[in-house]
Amino acid sequence: MKVIKEEQVRDGLYQVTYKNGLVLSIGSSEGHYSQKRFGVPLTVEVAVIHPQEGLIQISEYDTVAQLDIARFEHLTEKMERLADTGAEEAVKELLHWADF
Asked: What is the spatial distance between Cα 62 and Cα 12, in angstroms, rounded to a whole number?
């Protein structure tokens, strides 16, 4: 199993913990970089959290990124593929991921 925990931290904020310890934080509330139309998210704010080091640099300028749903799906697929690697190796693959 690649995902070991899924939880709603608060309204509009979900976190998914992967086998390697990395956490994908997904925000879709008013306080996040998120756009909705008719109550349906068009974009979400994401961050990746290392279990010891905290937020990693997912884009050139920030530790969070606003992704459309297709790019979000691509990120979740990548996180699942990396779940069997160590957290440090996975972070190398995710640094500045949102810039590409």
From this structure: 20
Q: Considering the entire predicted model, what is its pTM?
A: 0.89
State the DSSP string of the chain.
Answer: --EEEEEEEETTEEEEEETTS-EEEEE-STTSS--EETTEESEEEEEEEETTTEE---SSS-SEEEEEHHHHHHHHHHHHHHTTS-HHHHHHHHTTGGG-
Question: What's the pLDDT score for residue 32?
Answer: 74
d(CA 20, CA 28): 25
Question: What does the alpha-carbon distance between residue 46 and residue 38 come to, in Å, rounded to a whole number?
Answer: 21
Residue stretches of the chain with pLDDT short of 70: none
Q: How many residues appear in the chain?
A: 100
Strands 43-50 and 23-27, sheet pairing = antiparallel
pLDDT of residue 31: 72
